[in-house]
């Protein structure tokens, strides 16, 4: 409690100084001083010199009771409820990936009717920035109009590079994707490699893939094509893809120059694959352009690994790897704290498969966690 707040208890009444209070014999200190001045008596000498009194704390109505000499001044405790880096908080923005609506029981459905329903529900939450992924047949202007209809705005999208295809062919597709992102006003895009059958069958373990040099070539060429459109590509490691475990992530980031390829970590995929997100993010903090903020139940990830469950059994059918922010085991605040003070990009909340009862409830829980820990002004 602050000093000024405690002083309010004494307003409206005059405090009687301790030295002026009557003694048990009924005489006050004032009368005793007058008596000593008439008789010439002095206070008795105290052995060891005069007693040292602690400094008095000042209040608006005069001195207040001193703190005991041995008592330390009360210290404020660190409160992590609201993220403390206020300068950083005012710079970055937090958006949402509507993936739970798009991943229907019938499969991936990125259609206008699905997006209409998703955007209508998301608009009832604090989220405004939406991971931009225009459906087929809808250009950038049409997609922006769809967002605007619900009071939403575009946030960085995602390009999946086919590492088995010729690099030139992948680069052309990436260039078209980046042009749409640029038209939407996005300056970053997440760049990942597509999921492969062998990695889907045995996720989050890595293989020491002998094809990694080719993967690096594809990522490098794709990143250059995206960069040519004025958009910053950010490497996005993904479980089930050729870039999922830490050695693979480092190999790509270290092989492709930072002037071409930035970093777009996903806290959930990093944790599932055995990496501590904050540690890796701190090492490559200067290259981070955008982040996917995701939480994971690590016990479920381990159970899936022990059972040799495939990607979809681990996340949908038999295990519950994914969950809403704050409900899992990832230290999300530690991950966010690695971002440099100059970071002004996007954090995209992504819950691939909600643990909550509905997509809307999941989004509400995510928004509640963001508001509590990062503040209400980041949306």
Short descriptors:
about 375 residues, alpha/beta, TIM Barrel, five-stranded parallel β-sheet, 16 helices, 15 strands, about 10% strand, Xyl_isomerase-like_TIM-brl, Inosose dehydratase
Describe the protein.
The radius of gyration is 31 Å and the shape is globular. A five-stranded parallel beta sheet has the order 7-6-3-15-12. It has a four-stranded parallel beta sheet with strand order 8-9-10-11, with helices on one face. The chain has a single domain, classed as Divalent-metal-dependent TIM barrel enzymes (TIM Barrel, Alpha-Beta Barrel). The protein has helices spanning 3-7, 29-39, 86-89, 99-102, 112-122, 140-149, 167-183, 197-201, 212-228, 246-255, 267-272, 277-283, 298-306, 311-317, 332-337, 359-374, and strands at residues 58-59, 62-63, 93-96, 103-104, 107-108, 129-131, 153-155, 158-161, 188-193, 232-235, 262-263, 290-293, 295-296, 322-323, 346-349. The chain is of the alpha/beta class and 379 residues long. Mean pLDDT is 84; it is low at 1-24, 49-82 and 85-90. 36% of the residues are buried. Helix 9 packs across helix 10. It contains 16 helices and 15 strands.
- Gyration radius, in Å: 31 Å
Across the major sheet, the strand order is 7-6-3-15-12
Biggest sheet character = 5 strands, parallel
CATH architectural arrangement = Alpha-Beta Barrel
Query: Structural class of the helix and strand makeup?
Result: alpha/beta
Residue share in helix:
25-40%
- Look at the structure and give the mean pLDDT: 84
CATH topology: TIM Barrel
Total beta strands: 15
Please state roughly what percent of the residues sit in beta strands, choosing from under 5%, 5-15%, 15-25%, 25-35%, 35-45% or over 45%: 5-15%
- Which CATH class? Alpha Beta
Mind telling me the CATH superfamily name?
Divalent-metal-dependent TIM barrel enzymes
Put simply, the count of helices is 16
Distance between the termini: 31 Å
């Amino acid at each position: 409690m602050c000093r000024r707040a405690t002083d309010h208890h004494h307003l409206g009444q005059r405090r009687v100084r301790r030295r002026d209070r009557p003694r048990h014999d009924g005489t006050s200190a004032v009368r005793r001083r007058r008596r000593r001045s008439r008789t010439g008596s002095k206070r008795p000498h105290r052995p060891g010199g005069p007693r040292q009194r602690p400094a008095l704390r000042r209040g608006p109505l005069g001195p207040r009771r001193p703190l005991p000499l041995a008592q330390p001044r009360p210290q404020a405790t660190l409160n992590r409820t609201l993220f403390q880096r206020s300068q950083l908080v005012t710079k970055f923005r937090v958006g949402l990936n509507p993936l739970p609506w798009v991943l229907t029981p019938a499969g991936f459905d990125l259609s206008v009717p699905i997006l209409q329903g998703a955007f209508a529900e998301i608009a009832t939450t604090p989220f405004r920035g939406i991971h931009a992924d225009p459906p087929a047949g809808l250009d950038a202007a049409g997609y922006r109009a769809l967002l605007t209809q619900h009071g939403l705005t575009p946030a960085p999208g995602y390009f999946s590079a086919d590492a088995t295809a010729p690099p030139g062919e992948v680069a052309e597709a990436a260039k078209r994707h980046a042009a749409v992102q640029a038209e939407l006003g996005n300056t970053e895009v997440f760049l990942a490699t597509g999921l492969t059958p062998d990695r889907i069958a045995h996720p989050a373990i890595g293989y020491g893939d002998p094809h990694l040099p080719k993967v690096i070539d594809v990522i490098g060429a794709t990143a250059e094509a995206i960069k040519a459109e004025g958009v910053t590509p950010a490497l996005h490691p993904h479980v089930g893809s050729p870039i999922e475990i830490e050695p693979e992530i480092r190999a790509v980031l270290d092989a492709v120059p930072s002037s071409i390829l930035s970093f777009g970590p996903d806290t959930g995929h990093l944790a599932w694959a055995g990496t501590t997100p904050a540690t890796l993010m701190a090492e490559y903090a200067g290259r981070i352009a955008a982040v996917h903020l995701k939480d994971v139940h690590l016990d479920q990830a381990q159970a899936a690994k022990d059972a040799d469950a495939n990607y979809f059994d681990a996340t949908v059918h038999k295990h519950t790897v994914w969950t809403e922010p704050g409900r899992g085991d990832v230290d999300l605040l530690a991950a966010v704290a690695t971002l440099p003070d100059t970071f002004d990009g996007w954090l995209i909340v992504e819950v691939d498969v909600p643990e909550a009862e509905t997509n809307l409830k999941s989004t509400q829980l995510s928004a509640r966690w963001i508001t509590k820990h990062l503040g209400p002004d980041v949306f």
